[in-house]
Amino acid sequence: MVLEHFWILILFPLVGAAMNGILGRRFPHPVIAWLSCSTVALSFLVALLSFYNFIRLPEDQRILTHHLFTWIQSGNFISEFSFLLDPLSMVMILVVTGVGFLIHIYSLGYMAGQSGYYRYFAYLNLFIFMMSVLVLADNYLLMFVGWEGVGLCSYLLIGYSFEKRTAGDAAKKAFILNRIGDVGFLIGVFLIFRTFESVQYLTVFQAVSEQFAVMGTEFGVLGAITLLLFIGATGKSAQIPLYVWLPDAMEGPTPVSALIHAATMVTAGVYMIARSAPLYSRAPETLFIIAVVGISTALLAALIATVQRDIKKVLAYSTISQLGYMFLAMGVGAFGAGVFHLLTHAFFKALLFLGSGSVIMALHHEQDLFKMGGLRKYLPVTFYTMWMGALAIAGVPLFSGFFSKDAILWKTFAAGNEALWLMGVVVAGLTAFYVSRLMFLTFHGGERSEKHHQGAPDPSPKEPSWSVTLPLIILAGFSLLAGYIGLPSYLGNNRLEEFLAPSFRFQFSGQAASAMEHAHLTEVILTLVTLAVAFLGFALAYHFYIKNPQVAERLANRFPWLYSLLRRKFFLDEIYDWLIVGPVQRISRTILWKGMDVHVIDGLVHGTASLMQAWSHRVKRIQSGYARLYATWILGGALLILFYYYWISP
Amino acid sequence: MDINYTAILPEIMLSLVGICIMLLIPFVPRERQTHLGYLALAGIVLAFFGVAMGWGQTDLAFSEMIFQDDFGQFSKIFFLFVSTVILLISMNYLEQEKLFQGEFFVLLLFATVGMLFMATSADLIMTFLGLEVLSISTYILAGFKERERKSSEAAWKYFLLGAFSTAFLLYGIAFVYGATGSTKYLQIAEAIQASPDYSLILFVGLGLMMVGFGFKVALAPFHAWTPDVYEGAPIPITALLAVASKGAALLALVRILYQVFPDLSQQWQAILWPMAVMTMAIGNIAALTQSNIKRMLAYSSIAHAGYLLVGLTAHNPLATQGILFYLVAYAFMTLGALIVVQIVGRREEQHTTIEDYNGIGYRYPFLGIALSVFLISLAGIPATAGFMGKLFVFSAAVQSQMYGLVVIALVTSAIGLYYYLRVIVSMYMGEFKTEKIPITISMPLRIILTLLVLGTLYLGILPGSLLNLAEEAASF
Prior knowledge:
The complex is a heterodimer of chains A (650) and B (476). Chain A is mainly alpha-helical and 650 residues long. In chain A, 70% of the residues lie in helices and 3% in strands.
């Protein structure tokens, strides 16, 4: 029953968004909050019930579609408004509604008393709706609807406090960079339709597995399709070269950063590639590009994260870096491992963001790490839960991040990419470093808050209400436990990968299974290497920020160029400004606006308008109101017709 | 021989109820006569049942006088729907204008009978009969506000010019009969196919018939009556003329051109092409400087007749489908716009200039949104029925390689944007003047408007269902 109508879960948030959006201005705050949270709760409930029934189905029946209506039909082009529930979308929808629900609860506390309360919740609900459409769509065009929709919500929520100039600019930046990616995505979809005459996943995958049964050697149409789709993914999922919007997106409220810019929306690119695994697995060149882009992004972002002062910026770069890991997984064909990391990352990164939000709230919107410190005793719940998240992301054994990250690194190595693996290990070390740095600076050491130094009797920071701490505790639990669904082969069954298998059944399977697949000993050794590097990162952070706080500063002074290179994020924003934004603005202003628009187009428009007005007056004058004149017209017309026929008739 | 009554069951129902109302009129006090509208409504509902009873049957009934086919059923449903809306708004209108005369409803029902016959006729005589039943009823209805000069003038002009052009039609029918020896559609078509060396007499017949239909559809240069009559007639009758009467003549023309004269398509396309260009140009350009909204909508309806003619000229299966779709879309948005005009016009239609709409958008948000949707749809902006209609009709023309015509159609519809948006601009940017009589919207009108808005948007976003129906109906 639930399973047949699983799609109704998308409707609840839509209703919430509509009601809050249209009438919310008149609702009292509790009504807005109750409406918004309950709709997402209902969605989550439906998702859970669906899951409960779903896993009871035999494995070969775990692909359900529900057709709502035909959306567009034109010639042989058909786009249905229908939804697909398979293991992959099941995992995604659980994350989206589950984490989404927790963050709605969190928002109750975080957003209390803010202006535009209804607007915030309406957008947040709309986001859940759009994200659900994205993951449940059964064809590329409907996915694109969700894809654009979440982009819109992201834009609206980044610019939530639009009276702040920085927020408005950040929103625009996010939107524009996403649009660049979307162009690629859309052309990719066109090309899919051109090649396979359908945009429906299952039809396309069926066709691709028949037409490309043997791995092609040259870069063909599949290469083009997959590369174009990947361009879309670099925009949405913040990869090189389009990642620069994500750090700026931290202008949005912190729960938004947690939900949209960490747990769900930014993983849409990863989901899209995993969804398109049948296409990607047949395009080795694209896969290689993805792997290189992924690991480069991971490394670059991790390096930048080590020197950021703003707590949210550190987490933003960390997100970019972790997304890089996921793309690395995609690139080496380990789609399951990538989705696994997506899942665990959703928990621990949402947790870290929400924890940082709690810190920010307690410190009255102070985000500078160097003005925090010693918060351990004031915010115990935040402290413990955030450490759980930090240990998870650092890849400490037994925590979820350990299993998923290790799966990716092992698959990378097993696929024969030792260099990529090595870079991955370095990133693991950097990750441990920056996240421990963040934790040490926030919670340990002395209190560096300026107000304390001035001796002003600032009330000591307090842990926020239950609605903030409860999601933290729940997410901490998942950060600890979520890894056990994907144990490495030397420890047990990878249940997630088994569960996901039906989704990847059209994947190219021509490659002989790697000989390394069962080399447990190698896997364990590699894991130990990664752990050692991560511990090194942790130890360095401890040394720099707890034991010997001057060392970091001295290092920065010793290598000023390196420090400022990292501080200024490799000057990428400046390069983009100089290379693209500046010239585009100049051309727009001088040629397009003053030349084209003002003179040519406006001139043309005004000219046509006055010409038409003149004609109109003339036509009006002919309309004299005398019936005899009208009759003459009729007669004249009739005579013309008759004359014409007389003229052409033989 | 069996007589297939189901072929004209709706017409019978409407006529019977019409006669009943006529007999009842002397016994109903004057102030209560608007209540007879409910009886007329019952008649239309019965007619809907009549259509349902003949659903899906195909026949050539009454000695090859009446077609019973999908095209006919589609048209009947369409006209009955339009008549229902007009009946409902006219009950409101008559009440407001204190015109307590039950004859209004009788004439409306008879006009509907005429339309139904025009759309299903299989014989030129039958077509002519239908046209006359429709015309005579509308001549009277146009002058129904007999105390008002404008209304009487409209009726007179409409009657004089109508009679004049009907003469052309009848003369044309006579010529066609002379050339082919029959007035039956299928027999004429056979006769034409049998002797491909067409005589001048046949062409003269075809040309004169086009004059007659061109008048009813309001194609240039036979359109001149439209603005004067639409402006003078009571608003529900303006709607009747602009939607139903125009539609009936157009559908009859579709049948005649596509079923009777398909072999002469080159010859009639040569006439329709310049007529379409002129109609679109005159309609759109003249609408630019109108200050009365009824007059502006009259010119807009001329322009839309031009777009429909683009489809008609294309002469392919997609064209018929597109015309049927467009007609429904056009009905939704034009009826909607005219209902708003009626509401804003208030008693004696005092407020029908575009200036009267200043600031209405904020003062009366419901009316503002509704009229904006209808006007945006009339302008053919995406996500509305009007856009989809234009898309289908124009792509039919593209399919027939009439690129020049489509370009002209696009240019003229771009001009159209100006005058539609002008009303929206004055609604939202003009300054609201305090009014003597406040605007009131009765519940039935509110419901109808809501439905029309939703319909306009629905067809604009999900055209599939109606398009499929039109596709079935388009196969003669």
